[in-house]
Write a structure and sequence with these properties.
alpha+beta, D-amino Acid Aminotransferase, Chain A, domain 1, five-stranded parallel sheet, five-stranded antiparallel sheet, 13 helices, binds adenosine monophosphate, binds glycine
Length: 427
């Protein structure tokens, strides 16, 4: 089987690695990754085509006659990459543009949730700043103000007072701090509780949940500082036990899949619900239409067996009878970021310490923003640079092992949170 993984971050490294190492004996597996990075090239053939070059990806997939395309990032899905691949006869794990609007438009996501009675925060959609401000005032400023369009995780402003909500509306809608993404905003009630990530494969109708996980979005320890793409993740989590998992499939995932199918936009791909576990039960904060990053890194450490036929079944539209097997161990991913991230940062620093590390099924250094320079050295090339991911008998052991490995890696300005999984480990 020849698999094309589209993307070049930590999530794609974890996928490319697992798709290769989990290969059933006797099967020949070839992994191509576009564009990949300095870590992915150890497991896959990396081809310099960017994920948003839809024609380029299509050409690569057809010329190489890939049996399965797995699309990592959301932007090309929102732009219709999966539609184009499927039209060309390439089995693809990733929703078409219409279904990908679940992530591409927060307003569309809220409409689907309302229509399918999926529990979520109360909300309204605005195109006029004054209307948005007065709605937020009615909620005493305790709101989340969200740019409607894609904003790479930076389009959500959390407010706890009228002063803050006024400022958030002005920033997004009047000053256009995120450009056109602020043309329409969703203002919704601020939810309190703990967050979990619930990710499932969806074949257009049926859903097959992956193990539950948790992400750490804030830049600094104690959930302080600005939001990032994710500074670390772990799986499993006590927030989602077997009973809660069944409830989430019933109350969130299946209704979402059914609603999209009914709208003529069946969802074939990876459906990700970002949840707030509130005192009244789980509520959906957002839907994503792809694997989480960095949640995928711990998930790929825990999943057993050969992943490719499972992803293929979802891409072909038939998950009936398919199951997934999870290692009962815990996995923790600690992200090493460039100094300054999520703000401005410098690139091009040499990374040391990875080669000395013994990597394998229970410890992997997944590359995110890395590249090989002219001299063959691995250097930093992004905000999130590496995801050091370890398995352990429990969360505590996985944490210790991940942090021990992370502290052996160096580059100028390297920074990581020291509390990934810490709160749940103490309980
Ligand atoms: P989103 O992109 O919608 O997931 O928002 C990014 C982050 O903002 C989430 O992971 C939450 O931490 C936070 N957030 C979003 N909406 C709300 C809300 N209604 N109440 C509290 N926190 C929220
Ligand atoms: N880890 C958050 C995301 O993938 O959106």
């Amino acid at each position: 089987m020849r698999v094309l993984v589209v993307g070049g971050g930590g999530r794609e490294h974890a996928l490319a690695w697992r798709l290769g190492v989990g290969c059933s004996s006797g099967d020949r597996r070839e992994i191509i990754c576009a564009p990949g990075n300095a870590g992915i090239e150890q497991h896959a053939e990396c081809v310099a085509v960017q994920p948003d070059d839809i024609d380029g990806i299509l050409r690569l997939a057809t010329e190489r006659a890939v049996d399965l395309a797995v699309v990592g990032p959301e932007a090309p899905l929102v732009e219709g990459l999966a539609d184009r691949l499927r039209e060309a006869g390439v089995p693809t794990l990733g929703p078409g543009a219409k279904a990908a609007a679940l992530e591409g438009s927060k307003a569309f996501a809220k409409e689907i949730m309302a229509w399918a009675s999926i529990p979520t925060a109360e909300y309204a959609v605005f195109e006029e700043a004054d209307d948005a401000r007065s709605f937020a005032r009615e909620m005493e400023g305790r709101v989340a103000v969200k740019a409607d369009g894609l904003a790479a995780g930076k389009g959500v402003l959390l407010c706890r007072s009228v002063e803050e909500s006024d400022a958030a509306v002005a920033s997004l809608m009047e000053q256009r701090s995120l450009g056109a993404a602020g043309t329409r905003v969703v203002v919704e009630q601020l939810l309190e509780g703990e967050e979990a990530s619930f990710i499932a494969l969806c074949d257009g109708r049926r859903v097959l949940p992956l193990a539950p996980s948790r992400d750490h979005k804030a830049a600094f320890d104690g959930d302080k500082g600005p939001n990032t793409g994710g500074m670390g993740a772990f799986s499993p989590t006590r927030l989602v036990d077997a009973e809660m998992e069944a409830r989430l499939v019933r109350e969130v995932m299946e209704p979402a899949a059914a609603a999209l199918a009914e709208q003529g936009a069946p969802f074939q791909g990876v459906l990700y619900a970002g949840l707030m576990m509130t005192p009244e039960g789980p509520k959906v904060l957002e839907f994503n239409v792809r694997f989480g990053d960095p949640e995928t890194q711990p998930l790929m450490m825990r999943v057993r067996g050969d992943l490719a036929p499972i992803l293929f079944a979802a891409a072909k539209g038939d998950l009936s009878g398919v199951t997934m097997d999870w290692d009962p161990s815990a996995a923790v991913c600690v992200v090493l970021a460039s100094g300054g991230y999520p703000g401005a940062y410098e690139k091009g620093f040499e990374i040391t310490g990875i080669d000395e590390m013994e990597q394998g099924e229970d410890l992997m250094v997944f590359h995110a923003g890395t590249r090989r320079d002219e001299d063959g050295r691995v250097v930093t090339s992004g905000g999130r640079v590496l995801g050091v991911t370890a398995l352990g008998a429990g969360l505590g052991e996985a944490r210790r092992r991940a942090y021990k490995a992370a502290s052996g890696i160096g580059f100028t300005g390297a920074r990581f949170r020291t509390d990934i999984g810490a709160r749940e480990d103490k309980e």
